[in-house]
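Deliverable D5.2: sample structural annotation.
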Amino acid sequence: MSLLDDVSIVVTPNGYKAGELYAVVPVPTEGAEEVTNGDFSGSSTGWSESGTWTYGNNNEVCTGNGTNQMLTQSGILTSGKLYTYSIDIISSSLSSQEIRVYVGSTDYITHTLSGVAETISGNTVSSGANLVIRVTSSNTSGVLTIDNVSIKEYTSADMDVTRATAATRVDENGLVNYAEVLGGEEVTNGDFSSSSDWNLGTNSIVSSNKATLTITSGGLQYATNIGLDVVNTKTYKITFTANRTSGTGDLEFGYGSGLSVSGSPTISASGTQTIYFQPTYNTNDFGFKSKTTSGDYVWEISNLSVKEVTRDNVPRIDYTGGGCPHILAEPQRTNLLPYSEDFTSWTTTGSAAVTPNTTISPDGTQNADTLNLLAGSYFYKVLTTGAGTFTLSCYVKVASGTLDFKMQSFGADGAISSGVFTATTNWQRFEFTTTITANSGFYPVQVSGLVGGDFQIWGAQVEEGSYATSYIPTSGSTVTRNKDIFTRDGIGSLINSTEGVLFVEMAALADDETNREITLSDGSTTNYVLIRFNSGGSNRIYTRVDVGGGNEYYDLDTSHTITDVNKIAIRWDDSNFATFINGIKVGSQLSGSSFSADTLNELNFDNGAGSNTFYGKVKQLQVYNTALTDEQLTSLTT
């Protein structure tokens, strides 16, 4: 019998969308329709109307003008179960007002009406038996018409992901970039197959699948796409090929009337370009124009693509170190350096010099700077940080051979802390942690007393904490990346509470002696199965089962390095508990009670109640609905 015959949940670095990490097992399935007469066929039978809700022509209509306008179907849901729902908005003149979907008693999902026909949908766990659709407009005239209300039980272990900020990772090609989800193509005629949808300057033409801008005496030339509507609440990813065929003048991307609003740095080098921008207002004018105001030059633009991009809440599949990827979960951190890639504003001493944009950086574009440093030269940035423990990191390499350099901090109290590192011809991220008692000046590359030379540098970061986290780009101000939160509730049908196994292949980000947990629970710290990197000492792996608020089993292992990837499994069953790590039984107990049926219904990267958030790397997570044998657990964790 295969182990997979007993597995009920499998989560790996797999597919995802914004806000959701897909599980491999089970395949998501929908149950039977729970709503009666969701299409309002011939009447509002099955529904309770209050406020201004009334039956229309095979639909339901709300006319606003009140605060308690509720459309209810009672007794159709089961508390604690996961459901998927959808509602068709046929029409609405209640623009910017809210519609709330209550799945249960007090919990609800809010959707802001846009004034157009649309479908609202999502997944949620019920907190009660009733489905309620409520319009929250107060003393507002307008009409909302809905149809095709549906709600079905949803069986899925896909994990909800919350971060609410962008975050970077190392991709499968070894490049540092944002984890993001791209929408469909937005631009019309981006292949320049014709001049349609393009407004061209006097000396600009579209031919042979490219736009050519010929600039004389620095005059204005442009190519504006008029088939694209950009929205100021969205972020866009723009890629194109720019080729300067003569002269030395620069090109600029812009939008708005006359392309007057700049959306990117100046384009000064030929090659493939990538721009991210969020417009400050809605517009359908977008394109390229000449930048340099003197001289003659020619640019060719081709292969233009514009796609909406989502970065907030996108889970990170990270390939740091190469090989198989892992799910990356990190704490909140702030890059305190306002310019992480532009070093021209940093302070240099002696003969030190900075030349910008000389080298292809770890993100795959030519935006890394070169530092020419001789012995006795310094290159640094002064920060007002206050006291604390800080970690400085930056990517450094050299053109040939090897060169040594220092990374250090100077506290206002006069204390100096430093480390010596060796740069090679390959990009490396060097990290240095220091504890200071007052404001500090940081010296990311400093060669006093060492042999100098040309260094390439990119991606500098100073963050408060005892270890470095993933790169946080900045361009003029500090930037904060929120912590990663992974949760999945409403999955009691996928967990056999009376017996089973929780298995995780994982590593800690650092051995920082804090509690970081992954649990199966009932949403509290009363009933749970946990695997934890434990506080109180170094390299502590803690497994535990609590039933009804009392501890039934635990094991504390200190024989493994937690920053290495370890395969850890905990078994629970009446009088049959055990912990296996990397093929070895490290703890067991033939006494104690297990849970009653249907107790456990959540999988969380925390202690089950929102604390002790897990920070680390997860290569795979599995839940088994039987208490696997010792032989099976040895095989599973080897």
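Annotation notes: Residues 630-637 form the longest helix (8 residues). The CA atoms of residues 405 and 447 lie 5 Å apart.
The annotation will be released with the project's public dataset once the embargo ends.
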